[in-house]
Specification:
- This protein is 31% helix and 20% strand.
- It has 16 helices and 24 strands.
- Strands 11-10-19-20-21-18-22 form a 7-stranded mixed beta sheet, sandwiched between helices.
- Helix 7 crosses helix 9.
Amino acid sequence: MSSRVVEAGAVAPARGRDRRARVVWPAPGSRRFNAESAPGVAVIGGGIAGIAAATALAERGARVTLYEREQQLGGRLAGWPVELADGSRTTMSRGFHAFFRQYYNLRGLLRRADPSLRMLTALPDYPLRHSGGMYDSFARVPRTPPWSALGFVARSPAFGWQDLLRLNPGAALPLLDVRVPEVYERFDDLSAREFLARIRFPEAAHHLAFEVFSRSFFADPRELSAAELVLMFHIYFLGSSEGLLFDVPGEPFPQALWEPLARYLTGHGTQVRTGVEVGSVQPAVGGGLVVEAEGRTRHHDAVVLALDTGGLRQLAGASPRLGDAPWRARLARLRSAPPFLVSRLWLDRPVAAHRPGFLGTSGYGPLDNVSVLERWEGDAARWAARTGGSVVELHAYAVDPGADRTAEQDRLAAQLARVYPETRKAGVIDARHEWRADCPLFPVGGFSDRPTVRTPDPSVVMAGDLVHTPYPVALMERAATTGFLAANTLLERWGVRGQVLWTVPEKGRSVALRAVARLGAG
């Protein structure tokens, strides 16, 4: 399949290198709406999910209004201009994100503005470092299962052949045949930490590899549902041949991603209303919905809810006739992950030239990863070239909500000196710290409350990384996929063909290994 596929007038996502990736076809229908009969749709939330939904709807002629309460599009990948202490103007954001090659539908969205994805830059490695001296790398690990797992074991200092022999095969076999939603039915009542202990995963590898995965959900492994960890193992390791290397935007998020996509949307007739918070959504007499924002109401034929957990709870609480009471009660029980901290430091001297652009860390107190931004982001590279310094970003996930923020910021900076000793003598020209607590938490036993794309009202659909989908997707790719699925659900109702989607294989790759897994489950 070529990287560009014209489907219903839009660019469909490319499958990538994995020949076993699964295509998800939309329901049949007409190519687009007639101009005189096009429905009006409110998309509430301008992150990845909302932009994906708005894109699929607008391409087919729907009259779309996109509401975003912040001044910028992008949600948790938004960026905004800042002026540094040295007078430089730059873009601050909420931190590094990895665009894995398995993110077929997210990449399909980005192709609307950049068909060749030139805005993305490949990082050569995904290194992980433990304070005890262990260091893992995925640069030379084969990408195709099962050689990916065997290659990791062969190269990893944290997971050797003896550790492989000590695994509990009965507990580990389900990793060979991961399916949705069965993975939630089997493992949602178990924490990620308990699951790794049950299969006798070596403690060193807990910290060096899989704790890094679990903390990518901004959650402590003791609180994260094991189902999400097992699903991640399938998506990135045993279920896909795309590998664990990834790309990053070559410029800050607004310039690379959201400004081009905003122009694309407005070119398709979308009204993009940033800085506008929706107060309530209520069913309208005679059909459709009334959206209240800025003290005014507007009628829409349908609504896509693409909000974060807190925003969704707030909107549902202010909309007592939306959906039904059990559905609103489920939304009220949703939880956000603990706070996370992003510290960006503009240093007066460079980080050593051999340091990677991104490094996952464990055993360094609150520090979860370090990015040297000038290795790949143009804005930071131009500042570093002009000043002779470096732009370094530090992340701390699942911070204690009661922690002293200034003390945590100082602890994070102190750990940088342990990881990269050359920074000890560096002066900080400027520093910006972002504290956020708006990522969804997938707690042990919480799957039954997870919303789905469909709601009790057929004219209301949901999208976002907190939304359950029957496909093996997670994080940013779940946001993009559910955004397209939300649009497809409405389009099917109106007899218009939606967006073609791709996912990683929906089950284990080997018939023999799947049979072994089923035998073990029995």
